[in-house]
What does this fold into?
Amino acid sequence: MSDQHLLEVRDLVVRFRTHDGAVHAVNGVSFDLAAGETLGVAGESGCGKSVTNLAIVGLLPKPAGRVEGGSVKLQGRELTTLKEEELRQVRGSEIAMIFQDPMTSLNPVLRIEEQLVETIQAHREVTKEAARARAIDLLAAVGVANPESRLRSYPHEFSGGMRQRVMIAMALALEPRVLIADEPTTALDVTIQAQVLDLLRRLTEERGTATILVTHDLGVLAGMADRVNVMYAGAVIESGTTDDLFAKPRHPYTVGLLRSIPRLDGETGGKLVPIEGRPPDLIEAPVGCSFYARCAWRTDRCATETPALAPIDGGKGPIVTSGPAATHVVACFNPVAPAEVAEGRPLPRAGGATQ
Amino acid sequence: MGRYIVRRLLAAIPVLIGLSILLFAYIRILPGDPCVAILGQHRTPEACAALISNLGLDRPLWEQYITYLLKTLSGDLGSSVVNSQPFLAEFLTRFPGTVELTFGALLFAIGVGIPLGRLAARKVGGWVDGLITGVSLFGVSIPVFVLGLALVVIFGVILGWLPTQGRIDARARFDATSGILLIDTLLAGRLDLFVDVVRHLILPSIALGSIPLAIIARITRASVIEVANEDYVRTARSKGLKEKTVDSRHVMRNAWLPVTTVVGLQVGGLLGGAVLTETVFVWNGVGRWVVDAIQNHDYPIVQSTILVFAVIFLVVNLVVDVGYALLNPKIRYQ
Amino acid sequence: MFRAALVDPQSARVSRGLWSDAARRLRRNRPALVGLFCITLFALAAILAPVIAPFDPYEMNGSSLDAPSLTHLFGTDLLGRDIFSRVLYGAQISLFVGVGAVVLALLIGGVLGAVAGGFGGRIDGIIMRATDVFLSIPSILLAIGIVTALGRGMAQLMFAIAVSYAPTFARLLRGSLLALREADYVVAARTIGASRMRILVRHMLPNALTPLIVQATLVLATAIIDIAGLGFLGLGPADPRTPEWGTMLVDARRFMQTAPHIVVFIGGAIVISAIGFNLLGDGLRESLDPKLKR
Ligand SMILES: Nc1ncnc2c1ncn2[C@@H]1O[C@H](COP(=O)(O)OP(=O)(O)OP(=O)(O)O)[C@@H](O)[C@H]1O
Ligand code: SF4
Ligand SMILES: [Mg+2]
It folds into this structure.
């Protein structure tokens, strides 16, 4: 970690205060993002993917959600302690976001024009005409036909895919360094999904925009992401390059994830195996490994000690946290052996790690 | 848009027909001999015969209804059984008073209710929110006439700050053209009288406006809170818009929508509440006239007032719905 | 994708526990408890009036317009009757007429709403237009119209108020029934061939009841206010000596300058009971709405 990363998240902790107690939504998430790289994030619903992203840009729902620890640095600048006005200037112009549901993410009573122009004018001292000209270019760039006349339309006059293109245009309007795309295609038809993802990849590549791509679709990750963070119960439990992770998943949860989706190549024998049980209640502070209750590899140690992210092979050489040579790290005392992946359960080992 | 208005207008027709049947039945249901019920102590054999042929009570029901309907449509809303004055003429001299009162109450309810609702939404869960919730709870729980009497006691009797009876100083002399004194005093160039009218209007407006105020504050609060949680508001923030812009352009533009509908629905309650408020403040409007009519068993007056108030309610809500459609592009283009 | 893969063993338990869940949340809802307290006060005053009232509400027991004292807690009215006793008996009338009116309104509105929402089609259209007619008339005017048509009296009062609120209940029930028609378990019941009537009575009505109960509680507050309003307009119980709150206010108003406390005591009684039902209604809504769970 000698050279500075574009984005550095360290030990991020987010809690929600609710009537029933504090929800431990994010419990010490750390990761880095290098310029131009695409980081995929996967994990079950409710594991803290969106909350992590919202915390980065200071948009946690107020007043319940709060960052209770850790740091977020953008090019060395700490974001968690920024004043609201300074943070506002970062949002949209340096870190932009795209959300899941294009049907609800655009304001229904404002024309597309107003929504694009206001974004540009929030950060640049330009005339309305100049902003409008830029908006037309942007719409053209995301593949909206007749951009000039479409500018006058309201969101409901667009299809879902078109709206998400508008969202992309809006997010890229100010050439941000980081783009956070939180399940950008989940709400779209499968055929449209591919088009939108292609567009997203092309535009971010052209502009060298670093991207955090959250998705439930591991297939999308395989095609889009350079690296992947797998999250569980508010923590990153495995991280590595996409190739490493798909070829040699080491965390029991990651293995479960990969086995729970149909794979086109049929590599694992084609059987679809859901992960049993449900994620832990985040109201209780986690003790031991959070995956303990659902884990087939668990040992007594897992119940009391919390595993930290560590390199698989015992850490030869320095840990690389970004880029194509990123170290494959996993938070597990008994990482899954390659032979066990296909089985989906522990095999007797020489060390006798299984119960 | 034009189609939408036409559709709304057509939808009002069955309601108007239903209303006319109901009100037609009202006069027929009056217990016992219609002469006794309607004329009461003013009863003479001649008056009775006149009434019966006047109401057409000697003809078949359906014919009577058709006659009633045609008369109503032609603007003949019957006349008083006490002094034979036609309803409409008298109504028109009384109505401006009720309009003025309702306007004052609505102004008070909107002018105070919406800011309160916004404030509560901004401080949701805090003590300010609690206080505003308490005030609006009180507003819906206190009857207009109790609040009216309390205001009269406090501001009129004890403090002596404001007049508690009538619409204007009884000695004032000037040209009343429209009957709406707020306008007439200004037209006559009498600023002193205008101020007097406003002073007369304050207490009744507060009394009558308290329930709509509470309801408007509540719906504004709920609406703002709901919209503030919408995805597009999060989008607006993620674009780095100033909080002020997020609030005015993204939150409020959408939060208005349910508020306008509710404001329209308040008009019915206001017209009904005016009956009580006018009684408390000895206010010269339709409400007090109706109360007098009840006491005098002058049922045609009650009947036609109900009809006119219901029609006003329907028209106001039609206008509000069209306004809603104008505010909301999704409906506008249907 | 993972969502679908997860089994959800808790869902069954959650729905069965709606009422006990609601009771638990209600107990933690301080405003609702205050409301319950006000209502208890109101109900006790009404039920125990003959026991606690120190004087006969119809008889002259002191001199005219006495100020509040230990003998006459709220003072006396023009005819020397004890106002405290009259306020207690007034609670009886408001409670009796109010509850009666709301129950009647629930019956009328419930039947109309169930027919409209359960069967739909033509009947639905007719019933809905009819409710439109009634809802277009300001409720106090509607009540005035009914009382003048039927003559003064408690039963007439009850009926008038009931008719004013029945359309609201009908629409509410119809709305929930329509929403429920698409609910999974109703669709399931339909596919296994349960009869229309059986689905309506066994599956839909119990679930549609929740918003109705909340609304009925809130309407009780307005009903009490409306009863007093009609009394204030001289349309209260047939006997003008009856200690009905609104009727009493007509007298009290005449001595507002000299004896303003009378208005305060009577008005206070109305406000406290209305606040009680409003608070309880809001509390019920919050605790019965599963969306607000957490
Ligand atoms: N406003 C809130 N109040 C309380 N808890 C919240 C709130 N928002 C999120 N949470 C909790 O934080 C946890 C993480 O939620 P998050 O939205 O980050 O999940 P996610 O991984 O994005 O899931 P999904 O795949 O469904 O989008 C969840 O357990 C959720 O219950
Ligand atoms: S640490 Fe233990 S319980 Fe946790 S995933 Fe690894 S083996 Fe399973
Ligand atoms: Mg999410």
In short: Chain C touches chain B through 45 residues (CB under 8 Å). Chain C has one domain: 29-292. The pocket of iron/sulfur cluster (ligand 2) is lined by residues A 252, 289, 291-292, 295, 297-298, 302, 307, 332-334 (CB under 6 Å). The first helix of chain C runs from residue 2 to 5.
